[in-house]
């Protein structure tokens, strides 16, 4: 055992002291780190924990048409919320609030007894102005009203698919409301007060109010008048034909700006929860894809003209009613054929074998080069969500039959917007535009334009000269050919009918179930508007584009041009009334024929049809009677032939 | 023994200043709680003022008692403290506060035996070692038995459980043994045992590991184990250089749990800033310096060991408490001497300073 000297003890005590001082130094350094280096960050976090925010929602930007006409507006719809610890007499407050909100008093009592700092509840949201005023006048402490708004649609269902709608938290859910949510939703403001950990206001610290910043207004290229006209015509078409669907687009061919767009079935944005989500999620004019039918012949025509393969006036084609391609027989829609025609007449008559001959003349590569150049098989790039691409034949697999059917619009699958933009390019001098619907953002206060969409040319597809030839050819289709229904006195309308077959679930074409369409433009010398309209499976009529779709497009064009301020003129092609000096025609025996079979009689007689079914079971006038050309024959359709024998 | 001189004036000043700051800060930190719980802003402040008065009187009284007289009563005092400490563990006798059965007594007049036994053990150790000085260097005859006694005491405290007080007790006793001249190799051996013992403690009470992970990243569980550390930092961080001003704490509004107790240093840093907080640290350093000076100047080994033991006990408690508050070590639950609210700890601390002051009356400098 060693003796411990006094010196050892002194040394040890000094060592303990030095160690302790070192520890104290470390603590002082740590204190500096916390207070000076971490100080700002901790202060921010602490501020967040001390302050309680009552949100003040920003107003969503309005959506207006190209002239400032309001399409989507807001109405004030405040929210009531409680800070339970600031409420003095919960019973009194619960009774008064429950009366105003017309809810059960127990529900409010339950909210007031919640152990959280700020209580929000669904029944207290989107109040009307009267309710808000009544609550305000009560002046209870701990009861707060926060500004909020909800969407108001002054035109009800108009443009519903494009506009979409927003949810209860003012968040865009579908359509433009979703696509432009960030810009139009704005930044919410707040009323902040400092509170203790039990939710009571801290004394001596003032509240801060941060004003919400309203969202930017969204200005569309849509023209309120054109849109109204389209909606009206679609409503009439829906009532007349009870179709499975119908859709229409109007664009300015010189910019790609969409003037109007609508489809049926429709919905009310306020009431979206009551309809099937397929209805509001599918904006048919950009979503649906189907065989275009004869409207696609415009592409074949433009390509053939651009390549200078034909002279419309001079070159002739003889249609026997059938053309044999690669061992398959392709029929003209007119039984027996159109006989000898100029190529202009081929276009007017929409003669399938004639267009097949054009496709063959172009050849596989040129034909599909033009199909691609006109924008088919790729998205148009329109600034709307939910666009489809469509399907074009893979070139490696294109044989003579595929080339031939493509030339008259079968076997390819395209969207309405693709067709509209392609035809716009064909008639506007050859420029394929990217379609757009958002014109600009507007400052909600100064109404100044913030960000403007510039028209964008993707490419020039055909020359100005070819485009002029196409316009004249299509004007003659309306004046003299299958598109007569679209003729408008005083406006030079050009256009093309389409009757597209639909492919059923089994991969085969459906019987008596077509998408009938018409694409028209006017004035033919300098187009201001291109309108496409399609009706899916119209009932009680002959399913033919010239019968159903052309007159509607004629109406839309006439009223729209008038609304757009385009003056009527009289320098256009005269409508060719059906050969007035010709002898009377004998009424053919149509009984027992199917809808498709009798389409060929349409060039001589108008048909008014009633009933549903495959076959004609009655007709008036009776077969054999002599009537003037162009007279109307009334037909009754049914499933079973009324066989007299 | 030479004639008594005056007690160390600087040490007395430090103590009185700390006690005054303590009463004021307990008032500021507790007023919101006091008004909420007892509808009286001054509820805790008044009681702290009473404890301070009693404690300072006790300090003055004890400083008059010749420190050698404690040697005579060292064993009976230690024995009675052991009895009290054992009684605390009996349900119905010991009172549970804050999750630990640490208190004994009736109503307002309750004490924490663990506080008393810290002092009693230090007196006993100083007495035994100074009597049989050579034993301390011998492991089996000196070091180990004394250590076993300390660990037994620690075990009793851990049954409450009160880790903070236990750690302070063991560390203060070890410091005393170290100062007394125990061999370094014994401490190295002890370190191995200590580490394994620490592991054992964590395994036996898994909540301790949660406290440690909460310390490493308090934001992982901000409403659970990280809560106190985060709220403490939310007080200290915004304090900055000069603080919000006396009475201007925001964290005392129920954010920081019992702000007048273990976390009073956070409120000091929030209201008085870095200046105030380091001021308090400097006063504690002065107190430490004067205590060490007294230990060095003590006329005999008993005085030197008792002085360094008591000073070590208080400094350790300061270091552990403040380190917890500023997020240097995990939450242990220990009061800040002189400043935290609490009768037992304040009067005991002041009484033990009375002993040190008495030693200073006999010092040779």
From TrEMBL, chain A:
The UniProt entry, under SMART domains, shows:
PASTA (SM00740)
Enzyme class name: hydrolase
Can you quote a single GO CC term? plasma membrane
- Provide the PASTA domain boundaries: 581-639
InterPro entries membership:
Beta-lactam/transpept, Beta-lactam/transpept-like, PASTA_dom, PBP_dimer, PBP_dimer_sf, PCN-bd_Tpept, SpoVD_pbp
Gene Ontology molecular-function annotations: penicillin binding; serine-type D-Ala-D-Ala carboxypeptidase activity
Catalyses: Preferential cleavage: (Ac)2-L-Lys-D-Ala-|-D-Ala. Also transpeptidation of peptidyl-alanyl moieties that are N-acyl substituents of D-alanine
Question: How far does the signal peptide extend, from start to end residue?
Answer: none
Entries under Pfam families matching the protein = PASTA, PBP_dimer, Transpeptidase
Main site of residence? membrane
User: Which pathway is it part of?
Assistant: Cell wall biogenesis; peptidoglycan biosynthesis
| Any one biological process term the GO annotation gives | peptidoglycan biosynthetic process
Give the UniProt subcellular location, in the record's own words: Membrane
Keyword Cytoplasm belongs to the record: no
- Keywords in UniProt for this one? Membrane, Transmembrane, Transmembrane helix
Q: Which residues cross the membrane?
A: 12-38
Q: What is its EC number?
A: 3.4.16.4
Q: Which Gene3D superfamilies match?
A: 3.30.10.20, 3.30.450.330, DD-peptidase/beta-lactamase superfamily, Penicillin-binding protein 2a (Domain 2)
Q: Which family does it belong to?
A: Belongs to the transpeptidase family.
What name does the UniProt record give this protein?
serine-type D-Ala-D-Ala carboxypeptidase
The taxonomic lineage of its organism, from the top, reads: Bacteria, Bacillati, Bacillota, Bacilli, Bacillales
TrEMBL record, chain B:
One GO cellular component, as annotated: plasma membrane
Query: Carries keyword Cell cycle?
Result: yes
MF terms per GO, please?
lipid-linked peptidoglycan transporter activity
**Coiled-coil region(s) at which residues?**
none
- UniProt keyword Lipid biosynthesis, yes or no: no
Q: Which residues cross the membrane?
A: 9-29, 49-65, 77-96, 102-126, 138-157, 163-180, 187-209, 263-290, 302-326, 338-359
Q: Name one GO biological process term.
A: regulation of cell shape
Q: Which PROSITE patterns does the record match to this protein?
A: FTSW_RODA_SPOVE
Q: What is its main location?
A: membrane
What the entry lists under InterPro entries is as follows: Cell_cycle_FtsW-rel_CS, FtsW, FtsW/RodA, RodA/MrdB, SpoVE
**Record's bilayer topology term:** Multi-pass membrane protein
Keyword tags: Cell cycle, Cell division, Cell membrane, Cell shape, Membrane, Transmembrane, Transmembrane helix
Q: Where in or outside the cell?
A: Cell membrane
Q: Which PANTHER family does this chain map to?
A: CELL CYCLE PROTEIN, STAGE V SPORULATION PROTEIN E
The entry's protein name is Cell division protein FtsW
């Amino acid at each position: 055992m060693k003796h411990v000297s006094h010196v050892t003890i002194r040394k040890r005590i000094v060592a303990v002291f030095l160690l302790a001082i070192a520890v104290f130094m470390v603590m002082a350094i740590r204190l500096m780190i916390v207070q000076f280096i971490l100080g700002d960050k901790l202060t921010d976090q602490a501020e967040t924990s001390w302050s309680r925010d009552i949100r003040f929602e920003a107003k969503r930007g309005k959506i207006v048409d190209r002239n400032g006409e309001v399409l989507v507006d807001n109405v004030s719809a405040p929210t009531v919320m409680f800070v339970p610890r600031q409420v003095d007499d919960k019973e009194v407050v619960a009774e008064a609030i429950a009366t105003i909100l017309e809810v059960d008093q127990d529900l409010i009592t339950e909210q007031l007894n919640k152990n959280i700092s700020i209580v929000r509840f669904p029944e207290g949201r989107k109040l009307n102005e009267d309710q808000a005023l009544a609550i305000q006048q009560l002046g209870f402490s701990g009861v707060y009203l926060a500004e909020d708004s909800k969407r108001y649609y002054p035109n009800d269902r108009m443009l519903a698919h494009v506009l979409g709608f927003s949810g209860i938290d003012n968040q865009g859910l579908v359509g433009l409301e979703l696509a432009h949510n960030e810009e139009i939703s704005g930044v919410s403001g707040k009323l902040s007060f400092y509170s203790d950990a039990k939710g009571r206001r801290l004394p001596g610290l003032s509240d801060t109010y941060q004003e919400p910043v309203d969202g930017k207004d969204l200005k569309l290229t849509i023209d309120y008048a054109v849109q109204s006209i389209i909606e009206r015509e679609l409503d009439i078409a829906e009532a007349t034909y009870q179709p499975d669907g119908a859709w229409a687009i109007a664009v300015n061919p010189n910019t790609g700006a969409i003037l109007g767009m609508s489809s049926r079935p429709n919905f009310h944005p306020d009431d979206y929860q009551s309809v099937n989500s397929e209805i509001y999620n599918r904006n048919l004019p950009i979503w649906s894809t189907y065989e275009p039918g004869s409207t696609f012949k415009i592409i074949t025509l433009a390509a053939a003209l651009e390549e200078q393969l034909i002279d419309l006036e001079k070159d002739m084609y003889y249609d026997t009613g059938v053309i044999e391609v690669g061992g398959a027989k392709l029929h003209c829609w007119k039984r027996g054929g159109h006989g000898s025609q100029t190529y202009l007449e081929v276009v007017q008559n929409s003669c399938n074998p004639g267009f097949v001959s054009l496709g063959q003349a172009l050849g596989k590569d040129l034909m599909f080069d033009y199909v691609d150049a006109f924008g088919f098989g790729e998205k148009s790039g329109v600034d709307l969500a939910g666009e489809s691409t469509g399907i074009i034949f893979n070139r490696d697999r294109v044989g003579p039959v595929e080339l031939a059917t493509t030339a008259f619009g079968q076997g390819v699958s395209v969207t309405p917007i693709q067709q509209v933009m392609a035809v716009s390019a064909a008639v506007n001098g050859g420029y394929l535009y990217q379609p757009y619907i958002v014109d600009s953002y507007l400052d909600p206060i100064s109404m100044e334009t913030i960000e403007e969409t510039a028209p964008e040319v993707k490419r020039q597809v055909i020359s100005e000269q070819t485009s002029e030839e196409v316009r004249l050819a299509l004007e003659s289709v309306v004046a003299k050919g299958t598109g007569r229904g679209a003729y408008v006195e005083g406006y030079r309308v050009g256009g093309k009918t389409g009757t597209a077959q639909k492919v059923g679930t089994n991969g085969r074409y459906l019987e008596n179930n077509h998408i009938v369409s018409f694409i028209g433009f006017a004035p033919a010398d300098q187009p201001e508007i291109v309108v496409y309209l399609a009706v899916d499976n119209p009932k009680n009529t002959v399913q033919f584009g010239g019968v159903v779709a052309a007159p509607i497009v004629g109406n839309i064009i006439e009223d729209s041009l008038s609304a757009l301020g385009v003056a009527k003129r009289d320098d256009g092609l005269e409508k060719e009334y059906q050969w007035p000096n010709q002898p009377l025609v004998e009424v053919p025996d149509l009984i027992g024929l199917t809808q498709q079979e009798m389409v060929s009689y349409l060039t001589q007689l108008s048909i008014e049809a009633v009933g549903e079914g495959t076959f004609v079971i009655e007709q008036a006038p009776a077969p054999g009677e002599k009537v003037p050309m162009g007279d109307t024959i009334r037909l009754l359709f049914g499933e079973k032939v009324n066989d007299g024998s | 023994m030479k004639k008594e001189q005056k007690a160390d004036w600087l040490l007395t000043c430090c103590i009185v200043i700390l006690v005054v700051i303590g009463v004021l800060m307990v008032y500021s930190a507790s007023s919101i709680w006091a008004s909420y719980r007892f509808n009286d802003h001054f509820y805790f402040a008044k009681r702290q003022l009473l404890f301070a008065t009693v404690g300072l009187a006790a300090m003055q009284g004890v400083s008059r008692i010749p420190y050698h007289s404690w040697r005579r009563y060292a064993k009976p005092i230690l024995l009675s403290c052991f009895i009290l400490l054992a009684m605390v563990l009996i349900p119905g006798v010991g009172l549970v506060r804050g999750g630990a059965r640490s208190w004994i007594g009736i109503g307002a007049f309750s004490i924490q035996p663990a506080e008393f036994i810290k002092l009693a053990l230090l007196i006993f150790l100083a007495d035994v070692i100074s009597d049989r000085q050579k034993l301390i260097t011998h492991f089996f005859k000196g070091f180990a038995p004394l250590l076993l006694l300390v660990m037994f005491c620690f075990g009793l405290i851990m049954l409450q459980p009160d880790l903070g007080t236990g750690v302070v007790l063991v560390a203060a006793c070890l410091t005393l043994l170290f100062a007394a001249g125990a061999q370094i190799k014994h401490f190295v051996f002890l370190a191995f045992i200590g580490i394994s013992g620490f592991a054992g403690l964590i395994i036996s009470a898994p909540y301790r590991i949660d406290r440690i992970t909460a310390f490493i990243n308090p934001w992982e569980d901000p409403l659970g184990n990280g809560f106190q550390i985060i709220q403490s930092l939310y007080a200290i961080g915004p304090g900055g250089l000069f603080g919000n001003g006396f009475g201007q704490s925001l964290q005392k509004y129920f954010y920081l749990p019992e702000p007048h107790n273990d976390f009073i240093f956070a409120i000091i840093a929030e209201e008085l800033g870095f200046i105030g907080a380091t001021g308090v640290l400097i006063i504690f350093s002065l107190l430490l310096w004067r205590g060490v000076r007294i230990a060095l100047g003590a006329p005999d080994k008993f005085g030197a060991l008792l002085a360094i033991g008591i000073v070590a006990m208080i400094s350790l408690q300061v270091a552990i408490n403040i380190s917890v508050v500023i997020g240097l070590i995990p939450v242990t639950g220990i009061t800040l001497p002189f400043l935290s609210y609490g009768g037992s700890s304040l009067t005991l601390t002041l009484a033990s300073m009375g002993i040190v002051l008495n030693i200073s009356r006999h010092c040779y400098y």
